[in-house]
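REVIEWER CHECKLIST
Item 1: Sequence provided? yes
Item 2: Single chain? yes
Item 3: Sequence as submitted:
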Amino acid sequence: MEFPRISIVTPSYNQGKFIEATIRSVLDQNYPNLEYIIMDGGSQDESVDIIRRYEKHLAYWVSERDQGAADALSKGFARATGEIFAYLNSDDVSLPGALHSIGTVMSDPSIGVAFGNMYWMDTDGKTIGERRQTRFTRLGYLFGGSDLMQPATFWRKDLYFKCGGIDPSYRFTFDTDLFFRFALAGARFKRVDKFLAAFRIHPQSKSSTDEAICVAELQRLRQKYQPFPHKSLRGRSVRLATWAYRSMCYAMQGDLLWLIGRIPDRARAPWASEIVGPKGRRV
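Item 4: Structure as written out by the authors:
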C-alpha cells in the first residue's frame, strides 16, 4: 500500500537530556513517508548540537525565540505538507510501529482523528503506568468522562486548518482545545488498539509545575464549549454514563483486569500531588 504522508512536529526548549530519545523514536520507525520538523525555542543547553546531528533526516528545523509551545507548533504546522499531523514533545517518545499503524488506519479518508493507548514513564524511561482507550464519545469527551492522550493522537491536515489550528492563547490546554473543536466539527474518531507513545513525567514537565494555570484553562474550555455547566446534574450524568459505557467497553476488549487494577490509584487521586500520570487527579 502507499502510506499517507505524516508530518510530526516537535516543539522543544532546553530538553537536551531527552530530545535525542525523542528524535530517535520517530526516525527509527523507518516510516516511508515521514516529514519531521523540530521547532526549538532557542535552547541554551546541548539541544541544538543534538538536533544538528540529525538534520539530514529532518524536513526543517530552527532554533529561535518563540512565544511558547503553541506558537512553535503553529509555525511548524504552517510548514508541514503531510496529509496527517501530530506533535511529539521533546521529552516524550513514539513507540515502535506507531506510524505504520496510523498510516494503515488513516489510509481510510473518512477517518479524521486516530488515537491509541499510551504509557507513562519516569525520567529514566521506566514505564510507571498505562492509559488504555475505548471508543470515542463526543459528549463524554466534552464533559470529562473520557480523554485523548496527545502524544498518541493524530489528525488530518484539512481538519486541522478547517477548525482553525492551535490557539496560542492557551499555555497548556491548546491540545484539548483543538480536540474539542475536532469533536464539535463532527470528525470521525478511530481507536487504534495499540500503544503508540510514552509520556515522560519529570520535575520540569509543564504539567507538573503549573497546575493552577492548567486548571484555569480547563475551566475556560468548559465554559466555552460545554452546552451546559460541567458540575450541573446533566454534566455529572453525562460523565457517569460515559464511565459506565467505557467500563463495558474495557470488559469487551479484554482490558477489565487493567481497569480494576487502577482502582487503588483512583481512590487516592483526591490526595495525590500529581496532576498527570497514573495517580493524576480528575480536574
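Item 5: Key structural point noted by reviewer: The domain at 6-271 is CATH 3.90.550.10 (Spore Coat Polysaccharide Biosynthesis Protein SpsA; Chain A).
Item 6: Recommendation: ____
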